[in-house]
Design a protein that fits this description.
4 helices, 37% strand
């Protein structure tokens, strides 16, 4: 008897053994455990949340439970945390890294972050204009580059405030 026929014959005789080996669906989790930390403060420490939206260097992304593990560099922008009952909290972060771990864990490490409501649209507009003047001015290349970075952050802040 050929090996294939032997295998087919054995499979027909023991269907219950094969049925027990079938794969099923993974358990569905609806929360992700979030840790959002700064060098001097922990904003969230292993807190269960529904969703986290963040400004990754590759584009804006939303992270839900069962997200594929990944590491993302963050650009200056909005971090929105959606808690149970669709209540959301928003922070503006200067940049950092987000790490999605297996087992529905998300760690976000940022250099600096502040609640979005703590920013003034008028102050951002004035500071942006000043930074753009310096960037376009006759100063040193170093001053111009620093001003350009500053302007980029103010533009991101303006965008974040516009999406409140």
């Amino acid at each position: 008897m050929s090996a294939l026929r032997l295998l087919s014959s054995a499979a027909r005789r023991a269907p219950s053994a094969l049925a027990q080996q079938r794969r099923g669906y993974a358990e569905v989790a609806d929360k992700i455990s979030l840790s959002l930390v700064l060098p001097h403060q922990a904003i969230f420490t292993s807190t269960d949340v529904v969703q986290v939206n963040l400004a990754a260097a590759t584009g804006d992304m939303g992270i839900l439970a069962n997200h594929v593990p990944s590491i993302e560099a963050l650009r200056p922008g909005l971090i929105e945390v959606v808690e149970s009952g669709n209540a959301s909290k928003k922070w503006f972060a200067s940049g950092g890294f987000a790490t999605v771990h297996p087992g529905n864990k998300l760690t976000i490490n940022v250099v600096e972050a502040a609640p979005l409501e703590s920013f003034s649209s008028e102050a951002i507009r004035a500071n942006l204009q000043e930074a753009l003047k310096v960037a376009a001015g006759n100063g040193s290349e170093e001053d111009k580059m620093e001003a350009r970075i500053e302007a980029d952050v103010y533009e991101a802040l303006q965008h974040a405030l516009g999406s409140k």
